[in-house]
């Protein structure tokens, strides 16, 4: 058997020894992750947190965040996501419409309550209570939130075609105004993104109660139209602009589903469809409970994403997948980042969308004139 090094020890034994200090009970979360999260999925959380702080949050990295699952009803908008936005650790977002709809409840001063999963849903229905696993809320919360969205989208500024980012920016302004009127602070992710200039996209505008209310207003003459094609081009433009400005692009994925693909497909849109030379995202962090062997996108690995051009093959050492419930992993990642890194400068990518689109269009014309 050949030796792996001059000392005769295999190169595979070069990792740090597993020799943690006993947990005392007074550690901060970041210290616990560094010292005790040493192997298995705890080890992946440590690797993801350290990658996030040491590389992803460098000043020249544009951070895209995708979100799926019922995160905001569980309070993760207030506890984890708004602090990340306020620290400028997130530059643009793709999420489900449901995340934004349920987020809006809090900005309107409406309540979600802790409950239990093992109760009779028939009885809950009879008593006007809606359940999201172990979260309970009154049916009137839905009706009040529906009424809010129908009211604001009657405004003149909504009567035109627009990207989902522009739509959410306008909605976020109204939610922030309602927060102020109610004396509330930092309750709504949508409002926080409005203030920070973080563009928020949804990959399936019709697949939520927000989209349902937009559709209802269309029946009575509203001229609001959400444009998926503009969303596709705007998100690709934000990534290309980050790279052409001498920086890098990071994909941070919480959950999976359509938002994950919408974030990652920016690179195939640039390379495959628009014919622009590019290599893929530079960093990839995912928190998921989906398995890769079922073939679904939610569990697809970063190495599989390389084959699509979504991730730069040279960047594979800077990719981490944590197989963990997002409601566990996201607060840990946020706590680590906020403890270990100072706030970054604010990018306000929302304000740069048109310039980024102009750059994308110009490069497309030069790279693939035959496709026009």
From TrEMBL:
<dbReference type="GO" id="GO:0034038">
    <property type="term" value="F:deoxyhypusine synthase activity"/>
</dbReference>
<protein>
    <submittedName>
        <fullName>Deoxyhypusine synthase</fullName>
    </submittedName>
</protein>
<comment type="similarity">
    <text>Belongs to the deoxyhypusine synthase family.</text>
</comment>
<dbReference type="InterPro" id="IPR002773">
    <property type="entry name" value="Deoxyhypusine_synthase"/>
</dbReference>
<dbReference type="GO" id="GO:0005737">
    <property type="term" value="C:cytoplasm"/>
</dbReference>
<keyword id="KW-0808">Transferase</keyword>
<dbReference type="Pfam" id="PF01916">
    <property type="entry name" value="DS"/>
</dbReference>
<dbReference type="InterPro" id="IPR029035">
    <property type="entry name" value="DHS-like_NAD/FAD-binding_dom"/>
</dbReference>
<dbReference type="InterPro" id="IPR036982">
    <property type="entry name" value="Deoxyhypusine_synthase_sf"/>
</dbReference>
